C-alpha cells in the first residue's frame, strides 16, 4: 500500500569537465569541477528543505556521484552498481554532435549504442532499482544519487512509461527530481529542481 507523502528523490551529480563539454560519460571516473562541487552543496540546501523522512541514500559507484552525495550532506551512502550511468560503449567521451557526423539523427533514446547497453538493458536496471526501494517507502524516503540519462530512465519507468520517454525529462547537473504517489498512482511531484538562478550546463548531450 502506497504512503501519500512517500518520496523517491533523484539527484544528478554535479558538473564535471565532460558534462560541461556535453561528452558522454559512463564508466570514466571524473571528479567534480569547482562549479560541480558548488552545485552539490546547493542541492543539499534543497534536500534539507524537502524534510525527507529518515532517507535512505543510495549512490552510483562513480566518484562524481559519491562526492555529490557527500557534499550535499547526505552522509554515508549505500552503493548500488545498478545506479551507474548508461554504458555508452564506443561513444564514451564523445558528443552527440560528433556521433551525428556518421549517424545522422542519433540519440541514445532512439538508436543503437555500439559496444554499450541497449535501452532494454538500461530499463531492466532501472526496474531493479525501483523494485528494491519502493517497498521501503512505507517507512522512509529514498534518495538515489546518480547520472543524467539513467535518472531520466528512472523517471520514465516510475511513471510506467517506455525507456525512450526519458527523453522528455532533461536534467541539469546537480538537479533533483521528486517522485511519489497521487491517490496510489505513481506520479512526478517535481523535476529538475535547483536553488540556482543561472543557467546550468549539461542538460543535454
UniProtKB/TrEMBL annotation:
EC id: 3.1.3.2
Q: Is the Lyase keyword given for this protein? A: no
| Superkingdom in the source lineage | Bacteria
Q: Which InterPro entries match?
A: His_Pase_superF_clade-1, His_PPase_superfam, PGM_Phosphatase
Q: Which Pfam families match?
A: His_Phos_1 (PF00300)
Q: Which UniProt keywords apply?
A: Hydrolase
An example Gene Ontology molecular-function term: acid phosphatase activity
Gene3D superfamilies attached here? Phosphoglycerate mutase-like
Record NCBIfam families = PRK13462.1 (NF009993)
PANTHER family listed in its UniProt record: BROAD-SPECIFICITY PHOSPHATASE YOR283W-RELATED, SEDOHEPTULOSE 1,7-BISPHOSPHATASE
The protein's name: Acid phosphatase
Q: Read off the lineage from the record.
A: Bacteria, Bacillati, Actinomycetota, Actinomycetes, Mycobacteriales
